[in-house]
Amino acid sequence: MYLYANYCPVAATTSVIGDYWTPLIMRELLYGTLRFNQLARNLPTISRSLLSERLRKLERAGVIECHRNARNVTTYSVTDAGNDLQGLIDAMNDWGLRWGRREPNPEDLDPVLVICMLKDRMRTHELPGERVVLEVLATGAKEARAWLVCEGHGVSMCFDPPGFDVDLWVRGKIAALYAIWLQSSTMAAALDLGDIEVEGPPRLTRAFPRWFDGALAGRP
After folding, report:
1. What is the mean pLDDT of residues 183-197?
2. Helix (H) or strand (E) holding 173
3. Where are the beta strands (DSSP E) in 119-162?
4. Conformational region of residue 214, where left means phi above 0, alpha means psi within -120 to 50, and beta covers everything else
5. N or C: fewer beta carbons within 10 Å in the chain?
6. Which residues, at least 6 apart from 100, have a Cβ–Cβ distance to it below 8 Å?
7. Whether the model pTM is above 0.70
8. How do beta strands 168-173 and 196-199 pair?
C-alpha cells in the first residue's frame, strides 16, 4: 500500500486518512477543536491511546502541527495540506447523508451521540464572542446530559459540569435533536412545536436557533 502510494494519489490519500477514526479527528480539527482533551471529549468512544497514535500519524503526514507551551499544554494546528482536506471531509459528509445513512428507530438512537452530532451542527460564526455554556438534556427512551462550551469559534463537549456557570438550559427529544442534525427539521421549528425547550437570558434564547439552523459547524 505505502509503496503503491508513491505512484497513486488515491492510495496516497488513503494512507493518511483511510481508517475509521482519522477522518473524524480531521473533521474536529478543521472545525476548530485543537486541544487533545477537547478532541477526546468530542469523539466519546475513542481511546486516548488511539487518539494519540492517530494524531502522531497526521503530524508525520504533515497535515497538522503539534505545539506544547511552557506549561506542557498541547494544542494542534492544521497546515495548508490539512486545510486542503476540508473539501474531502465535506464530500464524505454529503455522501453519507445521501447514501450511507440508515434511518434508525427512535428507541435505537444513542442520546450521547445525538448531542455530539448536534454540536457538529453549530454555526460557530453565529456564536457571540464571549464564552457560552449550554447544558443539554436529550430525552426519550434513553436520556443523556452533556455540556457544550462555546468559546470564540470553537465548541467542546463534556459529560461532567465544566466548572463554568451555565448560560442556557436545553431540553429536547432525541428524535427532534437527530432531525436537526439530519437537516430534515430546524431548531426554530422544533422550538415552535415544543419538542425542544431552551431557558436562559432573552438575548441568548432569541439568538439560539441561528446557532443551529444551517450548515455544519465551520461552514457559513
Report:
1. 92
2. strand 168-173
3. 132-139, 144-151, 154-158
4. left
5. C
6. none
7. no
8. antiparallel
